[in-house]
Design goal:
3-stranded antiparallel beta sheet
């Protein structure tokens, strides 16, 4: 219960404060006698019921309870004899004792709006997002030699931006990969582990289509196109590099990029200008 947590925190803060004053007589909450725990709980209840209560009123409530339980003033605290040095009016307390009431009140008001632990857990469960659906791979879909790889990372999803596969995973998802690609992913044990290939579902529950092969094919095609583009670009650069006349360079720039070059410049400068146009606009 929240009130018990507040009482525990208030007790431990009071125990630490007493220790700072040289008073090591206060036991930990777990070791505190029943009467001491009940006294703290009563103080919490008083402040929860009376949020505007002052530290002086807090002490008055505590003192009333103590007197009703048979406690009396004593210079030294003695639980067996029910003697307590604070069993006197608030105005007669020394400043360090008055501070305890300020601390107690502050703890209650700081923690009173926190949800109960059980309420917090229930609210978390109610608001927890639904688990993402994970595609199912049936045994008959697995090419020979391929490896099942499961995403075990802490993030809810993962997109490969290192190996150029274009693959995405959600937590717990298993993809069946070619062995060379599987080895790359399994180099990262904090994110991937060798998985178990799920068995085929019942006939009335057809498996979802696994898109791993399709994504890998698309990534391979994109890499091939990128390679061809780079190769074509390099061929054009080589062509420009081997031009030995200003006229050829100027004609190339005008024909391909509609740019007029000043043929009065040095041939190396013209060549550099054309190469810059090739890098900027690509192969046209």
């Amino acid at each position: 219960m929240k009130r018990e947590l507040i009482a525990l925190v208030a007790h431990e803060i009071n125990r630490a404060y007493c220790a700072s004053l040289g008073d090591d007589s206060q036991p930990a909450w777990a070791d505190a006698p029943e009467w001491q725990q009940q006294s703290a709980l009563a103080g919490v209840d008083m402040h929860l019921a009376n949020p505007d209560a002052t530290p002086e009123q807090s002490h008055a409530s505590w003192l009333e309870q103590k007197l009703a339980d048979g406690w009396a003033y004593g210079e030294v605290k003695d639980a067996e004899k029910k003697l307590h040095p604070c069993c006197r009016p608030y105005e007669e307390l020394p400043p360090e004792q008055k501070s305890k009431d300020y601390l107690f009140r502050g703890v209650v008001h700081a923690l009173k709006d926190l949800p109960d632990a059980e309420e917090a857990v229930r609210e978390f469960i109610e608001n927890m997002p639904a688990a993402p659906s994970v595609p199912v791979v049936t045994l008959q879909d697995v090419p020979q030699g391929h490896v099942a790889v499961a995403y075990v990372g802490r993030r809810p999803d993962f997109t490969d931006r290192v190996y150029g596969t274009g693959l995405t995973f959600v937590q717990g998802q298993v993809r069946v990969l070619p062995p060379d690609i599987a080895r790359k992913f399994l180099r990262h044990p904090d994110q991937f582990a060798e998985g178990t290939i799920p068995v085929a579902p019942p006939a009335e529950q057809p498996a979802q289509t696994d898109d791993t092969a399709e994504i890998l094919a698309q990534a391979a095609k994109a890499q091939q196109e990128k390679h061809e583009e780079h190769s074509n670009l390099q061929d054009v650069r080589d062509q420009v590099t081997h031009m030995t006349s200003k006229e050829a360079l100027a004609h190339f720039a005008l024909t391909n990029f509609k740019q007029k070059l000043d043929k009065r410049g040095a041939i190396d400068d013209l060549r550099a200008q054309v190469l810059q146009l090739v890098d900027q606009f690509g192969v046209v």
